[in-house]
Design a protein that fits this description.
The chain is α/β, with parallel strands linked by helices. Helix content is 26%, strand content 22%. The chain is built from 16 helices and 31 strands. The strands form seven sheets. Strands 1, 4, 5, 6, 7, 8, 9, 10 and 11 form a nine-stranded mixed beta sheet that branches. A six-stranded mixed beta sheet has the order 15-13-14-25-29-26, with helices on both faces. β30 and β31 form a beta hairpin. α11 runs antiparallel to α12 and α15 runs antiparallel to α16. It starts with a helix and ends with a helix.
Length: 611
C-alpha cells in the first residue's frame, strides 16, 4: 500500500481536501506508489518514459507514443454524463443516474492500479487569476505516465495552483485508471470501458483507456463537459468547443477577436492557426489563442469575453502540411518537446510521417512501422495500401510553441469577443459567409449547425448530421436548457458580437472542384464580417442573413477563380426550403426549447417562402 501522506508532504501539497481525495482513491485503486507531479518534472518523466519504452525518440526534442490498437479515439457510446437530477437528461448527453454510475466505476477501479504508480496532477484550466478560476482547478489521478506528459502540455500543472484556492474544496476530482486494455471487450456487449462525468458532483471517473480525450481529463471531460455544466449551474459562463483567434489591422490599430464552432473535419484547427494571404500580410496579423475550447462570460464592462482554458494543442496530424497548416508544423518542429501519437514511425531514423504530410509516403520503406507497430515493408499485397498512420493520429504541443500565439493568450482577463462564427462542411446551399445580427437567430443558427457525413458518420443525401454549436459529443445537460443559457448569457451583453455562418467547402455541381481556395484566404470573409460590424460595408440582405457583395470582399492578391464567387455569394432557395424541414425535425427533439428559438425558425422559414 502506498505511503500517501509522505508523498504529499514531500511535494508540499498542503490542501487538506485534496489530500483526503488522494488518500481515498489510492486505497480504492491499490496503487503501490503515489507521486505528485508539476510541470518542472517533465524532463525527468520523459527520460523515465524513454527508459521504459513508453516513448520513443522522434528527433531532437520530439517523442513518439503508440496506443493500444483498439484505443485510438474518443468513444462516444461509452461516454456518459451522470447527475442526481433526471431533468439533466438530454438527447445527446447519454445521461445515467449518478447513483448507478459511481458504484459501478468504483468497483471497476478497485485494485486496478496494483503494482503501479498513482500520479497526482494538480492543474488549472485557465490562467491563474481568471474570473473563472474557481471553475478551473482540478486534480487528475492517473496510473499512466504518458497521460501525465500529455497533461503537462495541455494544462497548467503545479502544486501551487491547488494549495492556495480561495475555496480549498472547489476543485474537480478526476480519476483515470487505464485498466487491462487487452481484455476490456472493446466494441462488444461485454465492453468494460466507462468515461463518466458526474457533473453535479464535479467528479470525473474514466476507466479503460490511455488515449487522448478518454484519459486527459482536464481537456474534454473538465474543459468542456464539466465546465459547460458549471457555467449553466452557476449562470455565469459558457464553455464551448470553439476556436479563438485575434485579427489586428496594423493600418488602423484595431484588434478583433473571433471565436467559433466547427464540427469534425470542417477546418477548425486550420482556421485557428491561419496566416494571412501574402498580399494582406503587411496590413493584417492573425494571432492564435486556441483551436478547441473557449470559455465565454460577460465582463464588468458589459462586453463578452473569452479565454482558451487549455495550455496546449492536441491536433490531428492527418493532412497537416506546409499548405494546409504551416503554423502547426512550426509548432511541432525539433526542440518543441512535442509528443506524437499513432503516426507512422521509422525505428532507424526516428522520423515520423502521416497521410497528407507529403503527397507520397517515403519511397524507402527500411525501418518504417505503421501505427500498429507493424513493418510496412512486410505488408502483403492485400494490405499494401492501408494507412501508415491512424486517421485520428495526433500531436500534443504547448501553446508557447505556436509561432503566432497571441502575446496576451495568458491574460487572465481574457479578450473581448467581436464575432461568433459557425461552419460545417457542406457542398451546396451554404454560401461563403452569411452574417446574422439578431441574437435568437444567431443562437438558432448555432443549434442547427451541421456537416455532411464523413467517414465517422453516415447521413442522408442532402441532410446534415446536426452538431449544435459543435457540442454534440460534449453536451452535459438538456439542450433546451442549453439554448436558454445561451440567450441568458448573451442577453446580458451591452455590445453584441456579430454572428456568422461560414463554409469553405462548397463545390461546383458539375466538375466537383472546390469553389473557394480556403486556408489562408479564409481571412478575407472574416475581414468583411468585422467591416460589417463596424458599419463600413452593408452587404446584401437574404432570407438567411447578410451576404457580401463581390466588391466588398478584399481580393488583393486573390488567386482563386473570381467567376466562382457568384455562386459562393448566393443562396439556393429551394435547397434552403428543404433544409428548414430537416431543421424542424431536429429541434423538435429538444425539451424546453425557448420560444425565441422557434420564433427565429419561423421567421427564417417565412422569409424563404417569400423569397
Amino acid at each position: 500500500m502506498a505511503d500517501v501522506d509522505s508523498a504529499l508532504d514531500a511535494a508540499g501539497l498542503q490542501n487538506e481536501a485534496v489530500r483526503e481525495y488522494v488518500r481515498y482513491w489510492a486505497g480504492v485503486t491499490g496503487a503501490d506508489r503515489v507521486e505528485v507531479v508539476s510541470a518542472s518534472d517533465d524532463a525527468r518523466l520523459i527520460q523515465e518514459a524513454l527508459d521504459a519504452g513508453e516513448l520513443l525518440p522522434a528527433g531532437e526534442g520530439r517523442y513518439y507514443s503508440r496506443s493500444y490498437y483498439k484505443d485510438t479515439a474518443r468513444s462516444e457510446e461509452r461516454t456518459i454524463v451522470a447527475t442526481n437530477n433526471p431533468e439533466d437528461k438530454g438527447v445527446y448527453n447519454n445521461w445515467r443516474p449518478a447513483s448507478e454510475m459511481k458504484p459501478l466505476l468504483e468497483d471497476l477501479m478497485t485494485g486496478a492500479s496494483a503494482g503501479k504508480t498513482m500520479y497526482v496532477i494538480p492543474y488549472l484550466m485557465a490562467p491563474p487569476g481568471s474570473p473563472l478560476e474557481e471553475f478551473a482547478a482540478g486534480v487528475e489521478l492517473t496510473d499512466n505516465r504518458c497521460v501525465v506528459l500529455h497533461m503537462i502540455r495541455m494544462a497548467r500543472v503545479g502544486v501551487d495552483l491547488i494549495n492556495n484556492l480561495a475555496n480549498p474544496d472547489s476543485f474537480v476530482r478526476a480519476v483515470h485508471v487505464t485498466g487491462d486494455l487487452e481484455n476490456l471487450g472493446q466494441g462488444t456487449p461485454d465492453d468494460k470501458r466507462y468515461f463518466v462525468t458526474v457533473a453535479d458532483e464535479r467528479t470525473i471517473l474514466h476507466f479503460g483507456s490511455s488515449y487522448g480525450g478518454n484519459a486527459l481529463l482536464g481537456k474534454i471531460a473538465h474543459g468542456l463537459r464539466q465546465a459547460a455544466y458549471d457555467g449553466w449551474a452557476s449562470g455565469r459562463f459558457l464553455s464551448e468547443q470553439f476556436m479563438l483567434i485575434g485579427i489586428k489591422d496594423k493600418k488602423t490599430g484595431k484588434d478583433y477577436h473571433i471565436c467559433g464552432g466547427f464540427p469534425s473535419a470542417s477546418g477548425k484547427t486550420n482556421l485557428a492557426m491561419m496566416l494571412p494571404p501574402d498580399a494582406l500580410g503587411d496590413r493584417y496579423q492573425v494571432s492564435f489563442y486556441g483551436d478547441d475550447i473557449a470559455w465565454l462570460w460577460v465582463g464588468d464592462d458589459g462586453r463578452l469575453y473569452g479565454i482558451n482554458p487549455e495550455n496546449g494543442a492536441f491536433g490531428v496530424a492527418k493532412d497537416t502540411n506546409e499548405t494546409t497548416n504551416p503554423t502547426a508544423l512550426e509548432s511541432i518542429k525539433e526542440g518543441t518537446d512535442v509528443v506524437f501519437t499513432n503516426v507512422a514511425y521509422n525505428e532507424k531514423t526516428h522520423e515520423v510521417w502521416w497521410e497528407g504530410r507529403t503527397k507520397q509516403p517515403p519511397a524507402d520503406l527500411d525501418g518504417w512501422l505503421d501505427w500498429k507497430g507493424e513493418r510496412i515493408a512486410d505488408r502483403s499485397e492485400e494490405d499494401k495500401d492501408a494507412p501508415w498512420a491512424h486517421p485520428n493520429s495526433r500531436f500534443t504541443t504547448q501553446l508557447d510553441n505556436v509561432p503566432n500565439v497571441a502575446a496576451d493568450y495568458n491574460d487572465p482577463h481574457g479578450v473581448p469577443i467581436d464575432g461568433i462564427i459557425f461552419g460545417g462542411r457542406t457542398r451546396d446551399r451554404e454560401p461563403l459567409i452569411r452574417a446574422i445580427t439578431d441574437l435568437p437567430e444567431g443562437v438558432y443558427d448555432g443549434l442547427t449547425l451541421g456537416a455532411e457525413a464523413t467517414f465517422a458518420a453516415e447521413g442522408v443525401e442532402g441532410q446534415l448530421r446536426y452538431d449544435p454549436m459543435s457540442m454534440r459529443p460534449f453536451m452535459s445537460y438538456d439542450e433546451g436548457d442549453y439554448a436558454a443559457h445561451w440567450l441568458k448569457i448573451l442577453g446580458g451583453v451591452k455590445e453584441m458580437p456579430i454572428f456568422a455562418h461560414v463554409n469553405w467547402f462548397q463545390k461546383d455541381p458539375e466538375d466537383g472542384h472546390f469553389l473557394w481556395p480556403g486556408y489562408r484566404d479564409n481571412l478575407r470573409p472574416l475581414l468583411w464580417l468585422m467591416q460589417l460590424k463596424e458599419g463600413e460595408v452593408t452587404g446584401r440582405e437574404t432570407a438567411v442573413g447578410i451576404i457580401p457583395t463581390k466588391e466588398e470582399l478584399n481580393l488583393d492578391g486573390f488567386e482563386g477563380d473570381t467567376a466562382d464567387l457568384d455562386r459562393l455569394l448566393d443562396i439556393d432557395v429551394e435547397r434552403w426550403r428543404q433544409e428548414m424541414g430537416f431543421r424542424e425535425g431536429h429541434l423538435k427533439q429538444f425539451d424546453r426549447l425557448p420560444e425565441e428559438i422557434w420564433e427565429a425558425h419561423r421567421r427564417v422559414a417565412k422569409a424563404l417562402d417569400e423569397a
